[in-house]
Amino acid sequence: MDPTRPQKEPPMSVLDKQGADQRDPVPGKTRGRPAGSGAEDGPKNARGREPAARRVLFLVLNAVSVLLGIGLWWVLADAGFTLPTPPQVVSRAGTLISNGTLAGDIRASLTRVLIGFALGTAAAVPVGFLMGWYHILRGLIEPWIQFFRTIPPLAIIPLAVVIMGIDETPKIFVIFLAAFLACVVATYQGVVNVDRTLINAARVLGAKDLTIFARVVVPASTPFILVGMRVGLGSAWATLVAAELIAAQKGLGYRIQNAQLYYDLPTIFVGLITIGILGLLMDRALLLAERRLTGWQERR
């Protein structure tokens, strides 16, 4: 064969011709669309703007819902229902704020809730992990968890008052119990629902139990833990108000109970609205933490 003679290229099949037609004639350019035209960036930018637009829409809907609720409340009060009007509640709130009563009640109630909720969550997370990871501990602990879950924390308040007295200890204890029971079950469910494929894949790659627990189980259980914390927060507030109704000298629940004795509806509404606002703010803080800690999770 003469090397100087030009060689003929072998005949191309139909698939080869289709592949050649689909190749870009010039690197960095796309056929029918100039490079850098931004056509590929459009959907990406649109997806980037979508969460922000959705959050704005969500906030607008929240504001509309609040205004509609206040309007309905006002209409019912003017229609003759036994309800104070919004201006009456605002006026009473201004009085309670000016004399320092509302600030003292908020401080007392928030202190009890935060201490009991923090202690309950701190105890529930390791217990839930141990129950989900070790079958022996699950068999030993789970019956007691289910037993106390069937007993409302409100039913334990009289016993706690008799045993622990009427100071802050029984109030914090029942709040601790309410938050603990809600969070420990959620944590346990998070551990047992971890995909076994992820655990087996980690073992095949040579990971030890401690590494699997820290790098696979804990991240996969985090959404469950945060949901349990949100449920436990609601239980903590409900239990706090009940505890303050029974034995307290200061707090939002105590103020509501004291106002009920004098048929002071505006003060009752101020206490209820304050509890709702504080609970909503704390729940939104947990939601923000959930978004930060579980950014890898797909959302609707």
Q: What features would you describe in this structure?
A:
- This protein has 300 residues and is an all-alpha fold.
- It has a single domain, classed as MetI-like fold (Orthogonal Bundle), CATH 1.10.3720.
- The protein is built from 11 helices and no strands.
- The protein has helices spanning 14-22, 41-78, 86-98, 101-133, 135-149, 153-164, 168-192, 196-204, 209-246, 252-261, 265-293.
- The relative contact order is 0.09.
- The model is unreliable at 10-49 (pLDDT under 50).
For this entry, give a set of tags.
MetI-like fold, single chain, mainly alpha
CATH topology: MetI-like fold
CATH architecture: Orthogonal Bundle
Q: CA-to-CA gap between the ends? A: 67 Å
CA-atom Rg in angstroms = 30 Å
Tally of domains: 1
Low-confidence stretches: 10-49
What share of the residues lie within helices?
over 70%
The average pLDDT score comes to 80
Supply the number of helical segments: 11
CATH class, named Mainly Alpha
Shape designation: globular
Instruction: Quote the beta fraction.
Output: under 5%
Helix-strand string: HHHHHHHHHHH
The main pleated sheet reads as: none
Overall number of strands: 0
> By CATH's scheme, which homologous superfamily applies?
MetI-like
By helix and strand content, what is the structural category?
A: mainly alpha
